[in-house]
Amino acid sequence: MTSTSAPSTTLASYGWDQGWADAFAPHLADGLLPGRVVRVDRGQCDVVTADGTVRADTAFVTPHDPMRVVCTGDWVAVDPGGNPRYVRAYLPRRTAFVRSTSSKRSEAQILAANVDHAVVAVSLAVELDLGRVERFLALAWESGAQPVVVLTKADLVPDPVTLAHLVQDVETSAPGVPVLTVSALHGEGLDELVELVGSGTSVLLGQSGAGKSTLANALVGADVMDVRAARDIDGKGRHTTTTRNLLALPSGGVLIDTPGLRGVGLFDAEDGVGQVFSEIEELAERCRFHDCAHETEPGCAVRSAVDSGELPTRRLESYHKLMRENQWIVAKSDARLRADIRDDWRRKQAAGRAAGEAKRSGRL
User: Are 105 and 251 in the same domain?
Assistant: First the structure.
């Protein structure tokens, strides 16, 4: 029987370690092979194993629960032979990058599994959308990975003062997150990013046109991903990456390249939102009421920070927006929470009507 040391050596470049070997032990006893999913496509997946990359069917591990489907980055147990070969199980995930689908049911969709770094690519060819950056970072923190923001196409901002201001704006919106500027076209700023993603697994995220494929090619050192120019009219890209692909990097580590994400819906990401807006969470500890909504309550430390200029108004508005969105997503599957939201809304409506009547009657 094959020992865990053999795949440990062969798959080390894809992230195999003793922890995965221990988790795989029961499947090894059943004669199955360990491997990592490098691509998923319509019920089939490509799995890199000690014997090379094999094509396997996922029929045995495709339940109705969208959180339990096989995705790129998973470590799986596959048949040692046969035609077709099947994925028989996947190992418990250490991290998972999950977003809400664009459907009315807002189901979860796993974009990548077992990720150590979430690299959010943001193009400097268009106006910065800080709200979208915060949204990506909320999902990244919630996944359990360490976020990194990479400002791509830095060569299009030749003025160093302007570039410094853009970096500062992003840093303000991304506390605790490294912010790097890169020009993959000219190879500028890549060294720091290469060092950062040189160990573990990184997932590359961003909108179409953010330069993800160009960045992936620069990190891999070869033209492994198709690249097309962004539209001149709005800077938006065309979908050149249509599947999530796991690529081994020559400097070490692996990279999961993803298609451009036009919709980035939150999915049960309250902790992630709190991490993105950590300064608001810290201010909230000084509010008079522990359940302060930071709107009109007396003694609100958050509103005081906005009034004094310590906290930008845009940050608080973005925080409220993401928290409300996340609450509604969670409420769709939680009847008690839905009832609480309705009761809270009715109380606010009643308070608003009472205040209006008092104003009209001259009591206020």
Answer: yes
Higher pLDDT, 333 or 282: 282
Between 197 and 226, whose confidence is greater?
197
Asked if residue 63 has a cis previous peptide bond (ω within 30° of 0), the answer is: no
Note the maximum CA span of the chain.
87
Boundaries of domain holding 230 = 96-257
Shared domain for 57 and 103, answered yes or no, is no
Q: Are 114 and 201 in contact (CB under 8 A)?
A: yes
CATH number, domain at 131? 3.40.50.300
Torsion of CA 68, 73, 74, 76, to 10 degrees: 140
d(CA 96, CA 143) in angstroms, rounded, equals: 5
What are residue 180's DSSP bridge partners? 150
CA distance 220 to 250: 6
**How far apart are alpha carbons 276 and 40 in whole angstroms?**
31
Closest CA to 90 of 2, 174, 23, 139: 23
Pull the structure tokens for residue 114. 């077992």
In a domain, 224, yes or no: yes
Q: How many domains does the chain have?
A: 3
Q: Which of 197, 227, 257 is the last residue of a domain?
A: 257
Q: Are 54 and 47 in contact (CB under 8 A)?
A: yes
In a domain, 265, yes or no: no
Tell whether 263 is covered by a domain: no
> Among residues of the chain, what percentage have pLDDT more than 90?
51
- Is residue 39 within 8 A of residue 244, CB to CB? The reply is yes
Predicted pLDDT at 338: 47
The string of pLDDT tens digits covering residues 187-220 is 888 999 999 888 899 999 988 888 888 888 888 8
* pLDDT over 50 at 103, yes or no: no
